[in-house]
Request: fold
Amino acid sequence: MRLSFVLTLTLTFVMAASASAASALNPSPMLSALKASEEEEQLGISTNVSDVFFLLYTPTTGLDDPVEVPADVASPEGRAALEEAGFDPDLGSFFVFHGFWSGSGFVEEFVPDLLEKGDYNVVGVEWPDLAHFPFFWQAAENAVYVGEYAGEFVAALMGETGLEHDRVHMIGHSDGSHASGHAGRTVYAITGVRVARVTGEELWGRKSLHVQHISFP
Reply:
């Protein structure tokens, strides 16, 4: 009986210590999303969605001169950026999310083919500071918040410009696939209507989805 009690007490202590260590290494999602500054420096990767930015390519901007659109598209700066880029809500709009450790290179690979395929708006959802190598697990967690943040951006863009849901196609690669799914879910939560399409690229590899297969329903 005494030995059983000691073993139980020891096991309880070990489990509590393990849980404490795990909690320190993996803080709650909300806490992780909100913390910046000192902890980010220690992590070596941002957890702040304000580090996400949106680059808009249109037939007006071409390939070499995208316009950065503020998250607050209804602000004077947001409206000016949309006007400068020649955003047309009547065109199909692609929102392209790069994945872990791929940065804007993935988006830049798609843009030429998309604009050659037809007249579209293409928005690169750029989150390189939140998807650094070698911090895969934190990047995977960040993808949820990046997707929600981007979904809020898309919903606001719809409200500001009249862009319709059937003109929106989300494309994601690797962790960006998860982000694109959360973006689509967030648009639905805000507006009550689903976007036309969400496409996830394979986890490993680049540009396996050929542009001829990309369309609107």
User: Anything to note?
Assistant: The domain at 41-213 is CATH 3.40.50.1820 (Rossmann fold). The mean pLDDT is 80. The beta strands are 53-57, 67-69, 92-97, 120-126, 168-172, 197-200. Helices lie at 2-25, 29-34, 37-43, 76-85, 104-117, 136-161, 175-191.
